[in-house]
Structures are given as C-alpha cells and as structure tokens.
Description:
Elements lengths: L2 E3 H8 L2 E4 L5 E3 L1 E2 L10 E3 L12 H6 L4 E4 L16 E4 L3 H13 L5 E6 L4 H12 L5 E3 L9 H7 L7 E5 L7 H9 L3 E4 L7 H6 L6 H9 L10 E5 L3 H12 L3 E5 L12 E4 L7 E2 L9 E9 L5 E7 L4 H16 L7 H4 L11 E4 L5 E5 L5 H12 L5 E7 L8 H14 L5 E4 L3 H10 L4 E4 L2 H11 L4 E6 L7 H10 L4
Parallel strand pairs: 4-5, 5-6, 6-7, 8-10, 8-11, 9-10, 11-12, 12-13, 19-23, 20-21, 20-23, 21-22
Antiparallel strand pairs: 1-3, 2-7, 14-16, 15-16, 16-17, 18-19
Helix pairs in contact: 1-3, 3-5, 4-10, 12-13, 13-14, 15-16
Amino acid sequence: MAQLPLAEAMEAMGGQLLAGSTEGTFDGAAIDSRRVRGGELFFAFSGARADGHEFVGEAARLGARGAVVTQPVELLDGSAAPSGFAVIRVADAERALQDTARLARASVPRHLVAVTGSAGKTTTKELLARLLARRYRTAASPGNLNNLLGFPLALLGIPDDTEWMVAEVAMSTPGELRRLSELGRPDVAVFTNVREVHLEGFDRQGHQATLRNIAEAKAELLAGLDASGLVVANASDREVVRIAERHAARGGRVVWFALDADAALHEPRLMVEGLASGLLAVVEAGTGDPISGSRFSVRDTAAGGEAIEIDLPLHGRVNVENFLAAATAALELGVPLRELPPALTGLEGTRGRGQVVRLPAGALLVDDSYNSNPDALLHALEAAAALPGQRHWAVLGDMLELGHHAVEHHRRLGREAARLGFDPVLGVGPLAHELLATAAEQGIAVEAFESQSAAAARAVEVLRAGDVVLVKGSRGIGLELVVERMLAAGARH
C-alpha cells in the first residue's frame, strides 16, 4: 500500500492532533474497523446504522496507525492510546479522507484510467486491468469502490510501485464525477455508455432526469483529465459520442470502440468478425461451473489490419462490448494485440453479474442478481433468451432509483420479457408488480412475492431440467438469496 507520512496527511486534511504522535507513516485507510489489517489510518464516520467513533478502540487494537475523528473519543475502555497511535480531529471525515487520497495521488499511481458509464463499468475495469498487467505493474479498484468514499479508499490501498491503476468511478447525482475526476486526475477516461439510470438522484436535486442530463453528469469526468488526455469512447452511443467530440474539440485524443461498426458514428479501432448475432457458445462444464462465452476475431485497424481470435468466457453480447472498450484502451496504452488472448486465460464471470451456471439435471441459471436498470435488464433478457433451453423463465426484482420514470420502465420491461418468451415470470417488490401486470397482459404466467425468501422457495419448486432461468434485480432487493437457494437445491426432474 501507499506509504504516507502521517504529519503530511494531518496537514493536508487540516486536522488537530488530540493524542499520540504524527511521526512515521501509515499504509492505506479504512472506514470499517473489521477491515483493519495493521498500519492503516482509520476514519470514523457517523452513519445511520453505526457510529465509527465507537470502534476507534477496536481499530487501535487491530493495529491501525491512527484514527481521524470529528469528536473526542475514548480508546480501549477509556485507557490511553496505544504507543504510536495518533488521534486526529477534523471538521469533516469524508473531506479528510478525500484530502488524504489527494495527497497520495501526487505520487501514486504513476498513471490512472478512470472507467465510467451507466453499465459495464466493473467488467470493463476488470478486463482492462488484466490486459494492462501483461505489460505494466497494474492495480484495479476492488469490487465497486467507485464513489466519493470508495474511490479514495481504493486509491490509498494500491501498492507504491503501481504504474497503472484502473478505477471505476460512478455517480448518482450531478457533481459527483467532477469531484472524483479532480481527485483522481485520470490520464485516460473510458466511457462505456449513457443510459437512463440513477434518475431518482436527479429528481431529488431538482434536475431534469433526461438522457442528456445524465450524459452531462457523466461528462464531468473530463474535469480532471488533461486537455491532451486520452478518451476511449463508445462510437455507437450518441451521448458518449457527443462527450468525446467535446474533448476532441479542445485538442484531446479520442479512440473509438463499437460492437457493430456499421452502426457506429465513428470508425472503431477494433473491428469484430465472426460473432453471430445473439449467439453464444455454451461449453461443457461440471455442475456449478461458469459455462458460457463468445468466440470471435478482432482486427486492429491501427496495426495494418492484424487480426487475432478471442475466446471470451463471459456471457452476452454486452460483455463483448465491454471487452472491446478494455482492449481498445489497452492497445492505445502499448499492450500488443497478441497479448489479448493469454490475458483472458482463467477469467471467470463475476458472481451476480451475468454468470451462467449449469445446475444439476442440465438447467442453466443466469445469475445477474447484483443490480438492475432498464437497459441492463433488456440486455440480460436478450442474452438469456439466446441460450439453448426447453423453457425460459425469470425471477425479476424492482429496478430502483428510477424516480418518477419507475412505473413506465417496469411496464415496458414486462412487455419485453413476454416478447422474448419468458414464461413464467416471478416478481419481487412493489414495482415488479407493474412489470408482471404488463407481462400478464401478453398471456404470460406471473407470480408476485413480497420477500426474496418466498420467491426463492417458489423458484426451487418451478425449476426443472432443461430450463434457462434469469435472476435479476436491483441491489436493494437482494435476489442473491434466490440464486443461493437454487444453487443449493438444483433442478428437479
């Protein structure tokens, strides 16, 4: 992790030393005492569920180098602070964390790629990190540490010798990406797409929740990017194109990617060949193993038309697009084309993000339970419908944060589920009832549930050999419970 002088960090955050000493350094940061491994600076946040000030003593016991607090605290049942443990008081813990990360960014990493978009951020980030690691010492932000708390934690946790950090950055309201960009100062910005998500955050701030407004919030990523920096942009997304063209107009570099070159507004660097529309290769695998992926070729127009075959062990055409975003960025940053295939060796889909698993008796479970939004659900339905099976059905949960557009989007996706042949459809949550109602109007069998547990029990009863079942819902709905129960029970004959 990045080694930072504690005295410099206290000065950067405008803190006051309450106890201990600021001599020496610290390694990384934590906002949860359970994640302290030793040497970190612990930031005490006062949250709705817990107050971090109550865990300062625990952080000290586990080896934290010090704590940043907004109020006086007692350590270890009122005893004095352990030797060397510093207690620093600040006015705003969140701002202090960001100021500390800003201090670290002055020296680590040497270069940073920021990946944003309405969908595909995490997968694109993971793919790009694997590709860059073929040539550089590379670190990626772990999990979805992508907001004004998570990104500083990720930045403070990377090794000192990192040459390239690949970080996903996200927003739920206008202004967030500007702050993240100015904090991270990316050398490269990757824009995957702009879709109608996080609409509730716009409604809350009194902004119009239109696609253009969302695009403007995404464009804030340019704030910390140098005018001559590199933008990797989706040439098939009109709003992304508009953002990238703005960057080009101020003298910046832009390179394009697109799954369908014929539909692209600019010529992509990589041309895809041999990918059948919507057709996925399903390979033989044991029970519980990820089993679907895509095989295709990419031709590099910037390297004399050199082509190479790609076996991408990720489900759905949308992941081919994510790969193209990552591969285009990697090639621009000096990774040779021939390094793309070996970088994918051993790659597996992330649980909850479209991973396809073979259940006992031959059923296929598409686990897309991590999150959901209208565009992502449509893509998931289309990809699952393309998988071979005797029957396709789904367990779908509410899509959250859609503001006053919520009912409209759920009704539209109900019609899409019916059009694509999903029958039955099980729904969890009050908004899912709207989806079920429109699916039922098309003659589809539907069942509504108020809890994940009830839906899981019913899903196990419904499941049989030869099925393809999609499970997808927003994070707050918790449909991973449905997946866990189905994995445990397997398919019934």
